[in-house]
Structures are given as structure tokens and as C-alpha cells.
Design a protein that fits this description.
single chain, alpha/beta, 2 domains, 7-stranded mixed sheet, Histidinol-phosphate aminotransferase, amino-acid biosynthesis, Aminotransferase_I/II_large
Length: 367
């Protein structure tokens, strides 16, 4: 028997996650001097200067293990959200938290409700534990909360809400969240993935924190990888009921967030000016790209995140390859089943202009 045949059968139901192509790889392969990466929803401004200084100051102490309890970071988050420290969980990015929640709560045969297309780690976290993902199609790019709730059964253990949704950027408003919480049974843990919430400026945004404070079974997930610009340090966090945190912490590894990441996250939380600057730059870029794509006759999905889903009307892989040759990396959405769309991160004004020119040229070549 070959060694791969000893692997759990659930492993072979999974599709490998395909990240955005690295800029350095494209430079090497094509011999380009400059490559713009607008594929992974990173903050084009980078991290807060306070976080950068913190990283530099701590560089000489990386031989010391991090604080496994993350006291300073949990204290900062406790003060930010006005919840108890024992309601805060941390992970090596919010995707690790999703995986660990699956390990904690999903048994073989259990079900989890999730939108489709959406963040693929939801499906992975369930399948790997022998559970059954119940994928409910979006409606015009938006989560169909009513349809998702209708699929809940006694076997349902988790219910994923990606808000704003990745890859469409759609927001779930207050009324839809209220409908969900009015109709979800108590045996289901609602996992609200709010990775892009800091970019939302709409007052009708349906955040889930108040339901957690009311004592509901809700896990609210955030990350330092997006608006805070710390994607390379991999720090995510969740705000959860204390009993959920107690179970979660029995599953996670002791040092699943590193020392520099914890400290830089604290510094990033304090720099409200950098967050606001990032938010304003994103809103400006979103308006510009939406208008230009519309002028080009392309369908643009409404987005409340830091990225836009645009339907090119043709094979997105060919458009992606055409843009690559011009030094622009975006995200083809074929893995989500969207064969004509691209997910494009909002960049700096200069990057956005380069992207638009490259896209116009590519579409003309493919016409």
C-alpha cells in the first residue's frame, strides 16, 4: 500500500486553495521590472507606521517564544469591543480560526450551511471533519439568507455568513441579519466572517457583535490582514461566547500567533488615522474602478469590501493571462465557478489607472 492511500478519505474531497500569484514569481517568469498585484485584497498602503516601528524594535527578540495567552492583544481587543477577555480567540489568520472551529464542533455526519460562492475555507473546515457542507447559491451576488435558513436541520451545527462576501463583495444588511437571528435555532453556531467589515461605510451594515453581547451562539471573526495591512504576519481573531472559547483553546496549538504579529496588531489597532486613510483611499478607488469598468460595458457587482468582482463577458483565464503579460495580477474566479469574472483588489490611484489601461488593451486583443 502506498503512503497516500493511508490518508483519510475526506482529504481527497478537498480542492487545494489557490492563492494569488506572487509578484516576484511573475517578474522572474516574464522578465518584468514592475508588477502590480491586485489579486489578494491586500492594503495598498501597507501597515501602519506604528506597526512597522514595532516590528523593527522586536526583530532582535524573535528567539523568545510568544505569549501563548496573548495578554496585551486580548486586552486591546477587550477594550475595543467592550467584551471579556475570555471571549476572545486568536489564530494564524482568521482562516485558521475557521479550521479550528470545524475541528472543535463538527462531527462526521454534521452539516454546516454556507453561501456559494464564498470563502472556500468554510467548506474545507467541514469536509475535513467528515461533515457535510450545505452550499446555498447566492442571489444576484448577495447571500440569500432566507434560503440558507430554510436549509437548517437538526444536523446543522454551523452557519457561515461572509459579510461582506468574498468574492462578490456583497453586504448583508441589518434586516437580513435580524431575520437570521430570529429564525436560527440555539443548537447552531453562527460564524460571521467580517474580514472586510472595517471597509464598510454603509450605516445599514449588519454586524453581529450585538447578538454576541445578548448571549447568542455567535462567533464574530476579524483579521489584521486586510485594512490593517498585516497579511504577512497572519493574525486573526474571533469574538465568541466564553464556552466556545474554552473549547476552541483546547484544540489550538499553544503558539499559533507569533510575538511580532501580536505586538504589531496592538500597534495597528491604536493607529486610527491609518485605518481611516486606508478606508478613504479604498472608497475613492472603488468609485473610480466601478465607473471605468461600467464605461467599458462590463458588469460590476456592488461591493462593500476592498475589491470588485467584474464580469468580463469572456473566459476570465484568458483575460487574467493577458493582464499578467502586462504586469498586472488579478484573481480569476474560475475556482468559484465564475468562469467569466475577475476579482480585482482596489489599489492606489496610480495602480488603478495602470490596471484600467491594461484591461482595456487586453479586452481589445481578445475581441
Amino acid at each position: 500500500m502506498r503512503i497516500h492511500e493511508l490518508a483519510r478519505p475526506e482529504v481527497f474531497t478537498l480542492s487545494p486553495y489557490i492563492p494569488g500569484k506572487p509578484a516576484d514569481e511573475v517578474k522572474r517568469q516574464l522578465g518584468l521590472e514592475r508588477v502590480i498585484k491586485l489579486a489578494s485584497n491586500e492594503n495598498p498602503l501597507g501597515p501602519s507606521p506604528r506597526a512597522v516601528k514595532c516590528i523593527q524594535d522586536l526583530a532582535s527578540s524573535v528567539h523568545i517564544y510568544p505569549d501563548a495567552s496573548a495578554f496585551r492583544l486580548k486586552t486591546a481587543l477587550r477594550e475595543r469591543y467592550d467584551i471579556d477577555a475570555d471571549q476572545i480567540i486568536l489564530g494564524n489568520g482568521s482562516d485558521e480560526i475557521i479550521m479550528l472551529l470545524g475541528q472543535t464542533f463538527i462531527r462526521p455526519g454534521d452539516e454546516a450551511i454556507m453561501p456559494h460562492p464564498s470563502f472556500p475555507v468554510y467548506r474545507t473546515s467541514v469536509l475535513l471533519m467528515g461533515g457535510r457542507p450545505v452550499e446555498v447559491p447566492l442571489k444576484d451576488g448577495f447571500l440569500d439568507i432566507e434560503a440558507m435558513v430554510s436549509r437548517v436541520t437538526e444536523k446543522t451545527k454551523m452557519f457561515f455568513v461572509c459579510n461582506p462576501n468574498n468574492p462578490t463583495g456583497a453586504m448583508v444588511d441589518r434586516s437580513r441579519i435580524q431575520y437570521l437571528m430570529d429564525n436560527i435555532p440555539d443548537h447552531v453556531l453562527v460564524v460571521a466572517d467580517e474580514a472586510y467589515a472595517e471597509y464598510v461605510e454603509d450605516p445599514d451594515y449588519g454586524d453581529m457583535l450585538r447578538y454576541l453581547k445578548e448571549g447568542r451562539n455567535v462567533a464574530v471573526l476579524h483579521t489584521f490582514s486586510k485594512i490593517y495591512g498585516l497579511a504577512g504576519l497572519r493574525v486573526g481573531y474571533g469574538l465568541v461566547p466564553a464556552d466556545v472559547a474554552a473549547a476552541f483553546n483546547r484544540v489550538r496549538l499553544s503558539f499559533n500567533t507569533n510575538a511580532i504579529g501580536q505586538a504589531a496588531a496592538c500597534a495597528a489597532l491604536e493607529d486610527l488615522d491609518h485605518v481611516e486613510k486606508s478606508r478613504k483611499l479604498n472608497a475613492q478607488g472603488m468609485r473610480y474602478l466601478s465607473a471605468r469598468f461600467t464605461e467599458m460595458g462590463l458588469k460590476v457587482y456592488p461591493s462593500w469590501g476592498n475589491f470588485i468582482l467584474v464580469d468580463t463577458g469572456r473566459d476570465c483565464q484568458k483575460v487574467f493571462e493577458g493582464l499578467i503579460r502586462k504586469g498586472v495580477i488579478v484573481r480569476p474566479t474560475t475556482p468559484w465557478g465564475l468562469d467569466t469574472c475577475l476579482r480585482i483588489t482596489v489599489g492606489t490611484p496610480e495602480e488603478n489607472e495602470v490596471l484600467v489601461e491594461a484591461l482595456e488593451a487586453t479586452l481589445e486583443e481578445l475581441a
